[in-house]
Target: Carbohydrate ABC transporter ATP-binding protein, CUT1 family (TC 3.A.1.1.-)
Amino acid sequence: MATIELKNLKKHFGNVKAVDDVSLKINDGEFVVFLGPSGCGKTTTLLMLAGIYKPTGGEILFDNQVVNEVPPKDREIGMVFQSYALYPHMTLYENIAFPLQAKKMDKNEIDKKVKDVTKNLDIGKLLDRKPNQISGGQQQRVAIARALVKKPKILLFDEPLSNLDAALRAYMRAEIKKLQHDLGITSVYVTHDQIEAMTMADRIAVFNKGKLMQFDIPDKIYNQPKNIFVARFVGTPSMNIIDVEIIKLGEDVYIKIEDDIKIKIVNKEIKEKINKISEKNVLMGLRPEDIKIRFKKEEGNSFKSKVYILEPLGREIIYNIKLGNNIFKIISDEKYELKIDDDIYLKFPDTNFHLFDKNTGENLL
Ligand code: ATP
Model:
């Protein structure tokens, strides 16, 4: 069991700041996902944890001990890669036993450990096959077994599901989460897939351009994004973001979308927060489920709109609704019989919205 701490961690490749001053602390037994777009520095951070890359600056601590100088083989980590990295000429048994043979462990002991680890992963009956004689999902489980057989203190996953088809990916997502939960091994999992991050993680670290944007539980990442990058990166369909103007008129506060579309702020706490914002022009963010479809004008902030297009997804429909010059993506628990160009009303929420600084992207509420 182990805790992990990154203190002002940096990795530069020439002029490229691949990892730029990242600090975070991972608890014992926690499942943390590093999430971000391609090139954001998540893999580089993982490879520093593995000891494959040496940091340009800062410290990595396992169980409060600095490990910067500890070579990979002595870090007690297990690693699972996207490409599985199985040896094609060896049987599955030999693949899994390999790290133990490398340690010159007794044959009977190796046999017991291989049998133990494969039992839970449902590959016990396949052990005399070669990697090309089993499916992608099974190969991935062999790779996990090989990472687990040494009883590592820390598990590192580098996009382990990205070579699998969608159905198998969804299946393995739950399998890996259950396995990690049962074993309780501190784990770091790198992905660019926000659904993997949201469904699997105890906490998510969102990266962008080498910097840590937010480190929080999935619910907070979704509902309280610290900045517009996190807000946009997480959620499908993604958050509606529009240009707005804050108008303060005596006691009243409005968010102006267009001249004749002004949202009156009624919630006292939000009004107070907006009163402290000095910028006039900001960005407003609204999740697709927080704007409601109505068939007549209601009290409060409802505005006449038109159906632009519908995107049915089977279980739900993404309603694209035009209000003034903006098109909002809306999802709802209710299914509405709507056609293109139907006149409807959009009702805006009193509290469930965000305002972001246009320059810094910071969440202002
Ligand atoms: P991906 O999902 O595409 O792997 P990532 O978020 O894991 O992306 P990294 O692989 O960590 O990103 O890369 C971060 C930045 O560092 C990128 O700009 C990348 O081009 C650069 N980089 C990574 N490894 C090296 C290297 N060995 N030499 C030079 N630059 C590198």
Q: What stands out?
A: The radius of gyration is 25 Å. Residues 166-183 form the longest helix (18 residues).
